[in-house]
Design goal:
Length: 532
């Protein structure tokens, strides 16, 4: 079926699918075939996209075509605002439908401002606005499209719960959206990525849309732009971050006209360009004025694990938790002062609770490595300088009849050598900014930073870019339900930073704060650390 649409230049043209639309429709049709063959159980999709890639247009056209040719079809699109609902229905559905030859139009029962209903084949498609939690409950649906669902005013869960009984078992469910920060859509996306729900997550980079490219206005403009890409000392400070991003895009294979287009979008939108035209899902969700660490990038700050040289200093940190998630992190530092976070032991709020003693036992087990001597495997315990723990670890709990502290329970599990962490929230955020700041490694000709995170530290990598600033003090990270990993890793990173900058008197005081049960061997190692 041939539809016509009004394109971005306000021309009426045949609706031919672009590359992104074609890819999505192919995936959707393949999924429906797999469902009919019993190879998949659900037809639920999350579509995370850049602006104006044409998803609303193609999903609307798909439903309209189904309504015209499929008996008993019932489709429904729910938009984030009344204005967008009108645009979808009038411009993306009614206009193509009205321009069809009369011979192919089914017999109409209703043709209103929000619904097309075809009487003889008992099919319909309608659009509405996510203005109440009750929307859509009274109809049976076999196709549902949530447009810009990350912006629905009443959230997603309440509306989808209400729609649950209306959706048939084989219903296609598509929730598409540009990112709107770390909100409910982000939670559903994370669940899909982690296999914790039934959605299939699909992300479409802006550069997959072929029209997103820009010709140079002159040879001089092209020469100046290429110089900024290739000369790492040339871009001024205000453009450093965007050209870091552009160089990574160039390494992915984007051509110079695509890069120039992206650069000019950045000039108009600044940091919001990452939200509206993201290069990765993580970048989409971490963009915006409220994000605490917008500079975080997997390409720059995450590395593959490697064998840590025996002579590198190592230490550990923990954010205490039982009902709240706990987090333990292991650190090391190279000869040139680059810090690596190389191990993570934590839990999410959905995972089972673990007693403090059992946590310590597991931490002790993790703090080992194997060596082969004379053909035999020998398990050795890592030499760790200390463990920086939240100060509440030294408090007794009013419900503990034995008067024990968390440190006592950690000792029972076999973990010793604790030192109180620096908990100043402003300092912690400032230190992260310093260690995340990218710089060019002259040896590898790659962008890196003073801190690197092993890709096995999955929860820290997942939650760090989602953290937001404190509304009352932008120099602090806001308290949230996902800040436990940040807290735990911060204790270790800040302890190193403070240790590096301490005077001898402060270093001596820090050593005196070490846990009283610190054995003689560990105390000597601690002195060595602070003398670096």
């Amino acid at each position: 079926m041939i539809f016509v649409i009004v394109d971005k230049d306000k021309r009426t043209v045949p609706f031919f699918l672009n590359d992104v639309q074609h890819s999505f429709i192919d995936d959707l049709n393949r999924a429906k075939e797999d469902y009919r063959a019993g190879r998949r159980l659900h037809l639920k999709f999350l579509v995370l996209k850049g602006r104006q890639q044409g998803f609303t247009s193609v999903i609307t056209a798909y439903q309209l075509a189904a309504a015209i040719v499929t008996r008993n079809f019932s489709g429904f699109t729910l938009a984030d605002s009344g204005e967008n609902t009108t645009t979808i229905f009038e411009d993306k559905a009614k206009f193509p439908y009205n321009n069809l030859p009369e011979q192919v139009k089914p017999t109409e029962k209703y043709n209103t401002r929000r619904e097309l209903h075809f009487e003889k084949i008992n099919s319909r498609w309608r659009a509405s606005t996510a203005g109440t939690k009750e929307v859509g409950r009274s109809k049976t649906l076999n196709f549902f499209h949530g447009s810009e669902s990350g912006f629905w005013p009443y959230g997603i869960e309440s509306i989808m719960t209400g729609l649950g009984e209306a959706l048939t078992k084989d219903a296609v469910i598509i929730l598409e959206s540009t990112a709107n920060g770390p909100n409910e859509y982000k939670d559903i996306w994370d669940g899909a990525i982690q296999g914790k729900n039934n959605y299939e997550a699909k992300f479409y980079e802006w550069w997959r849309s072929p029209e997103y490219r820009l010709s140079f206005e002159s040879d001089q403009a092209k020469e100046d732009f290429l110089r900024k890409i290739t000369d790492k000392e040339f871009p001024p400070d205000r453009e450093r971050d965007i050209f870091t991003e552009i160089r990574m895009l160039k390494a992915r294979g984007l051509d110079v006209q695509q890069l120039y287009w992206y650069y000019h979008k950045w000039r108009d939108k600044k940091d919001k360009v990452k939200q509206e035209y993201p290069n990765t899902p993580e970048q989409a969700f971490q963009s915006g004025d409220s994000i605490a660490f917008p500079e975080f990038s997997k390409e720059i700050h995450v590395c593959s694990p490697f064998k840590i040289p025996d002579h590198w200093y190592r230490w550990r940190s923990c954010d205490n938790g039982y009902d709240d998630p706990f987090s333990w992190y292991w650190f090391t530092v190279s000869e040139d002062g680059q810090v690596f976070i190389y191990r993570e032991f934590t839990r999410t709020r959905e995972d089972p609770r673990i007693l403090y003693t059992e946590q310590a036992k597991r931490v002790k087990e993790l703090s080992t490595y194997s060596v082969i001597e004379r053909g035999r495997e020998i398990v050795e315990e890592e030499t760790l300088l200390y463990t920086a723990a939240g100060k509440d670890a030294w408090n007794t709990h009013h419900r503990d009849e034995k008067g024990k502290t968390l440190i006592d329970y950690y000792h029972e599990g076999g973990v010793y050598g604790f030192v109180p962490a620096v908990t100043d929230r402003r300092l912690r955020k400032a230190v992260w900014h310093e260690y995340l700041s990218p710089y060019m490694d002259g040896n590898t000709d790659r962008w890196t930073s003073k801190v690197q995170i092993f890709d096995t530290c999955k929860e820290l990598i997942r939650t760090l870019p989602q953290l937001v600033k404190d509304e009352k003090d932008a120099e602090k990270v806001a308290d949230s339900k996902i800040d436990n990993q940040y807290d735990g890793a911060s204790y270790g990173l800040v302890s190193y930073h403070v240790g590096q900058s301490d005077s001898e008197e402060t270093a001596a005081k820090n050593r005196n704060d070490f846990d009283k049960d610190f054995d003689e061997e560990d105390e000597t190692a601690g002195s060595g650390f602070y003398a670096m």
